[in-house]
Amino acid sequence: MILSARTLPILVVTTLIGGGLPLAAQRPAFTHNVDPTRYGETVLAVVPMQGAGTATDPRRPLFAPNFNDPRQRPDPKSPNVIRSARFIPSDDGRFAIVEFVAKDRRGLQPILNHGRADVIVFEPRRNRAHDKAAVEPQIRRFKRDFDFDAFLRPPGAQSAAAPGQGAGR
């Protein structure tokens, strides 16, 4: 690069603002999604699906708020709400395997104290009896290829397997 009276101010500004690198080169090479447990309490549950499948009443797991409807969208500042729910449908589509996340246990009370025979709740991050060996066979009654480790891995996190290979079982 040839320095001249015209290029020197650009070089100085680029160096002061961006450390000499173009702005695109300063972005991280990957995005790290933070483990949801750092944001509160989580439970894993098998629950029936609900909803008519319309825009105003989408198919979703029982206990999951309708995040599309502003009237039903939970207040993010309240500790008494479910902040997120990610799920996979069962093989027959009547149930869902769901990870519910709330700021604290008060938000999960409707799930923990459900009293319904068609709801199964696990707390793998809190209760040692709900580890992979105990939970995976029960959930596989609903989803044959359920992978406990892959489901509870934070979204976007990579598995320990080599690229192009499955996580293994």
Tally the beta strands.
Answer: 5
CATH architecture of the domain at 36-152: 2-Layer Sandwich
* CATH top level label of the domain at 36-152: Alpha Beta
Order of helices and strands: HEEEEHEHH
The outline comes out as: globular
Helix content: 10-25%
The structural class is alpha+beta
Low-confidence stretches: 7-34, 159-169
Strand content: 15-25%
Mean pLDDT: 74
Can you walk me through this structure?
By secondary structure, this protein is an alpha+beta fold. Helix content is 17%, strand content 18%. The protein contains four helices and five strands. It has helices at 7-18, 109-112, 132-139, 148-152; strands at 41-50, 60-61, 82-89, 95-102, 120-122. Strands 1, 2, 3, 4 and 5 form a five-stranded antiparallel sheet that branches. Strand 3 (82-89) and strand 4 (95-102) form a beta hairpin. It is globular and about 40 Å long.
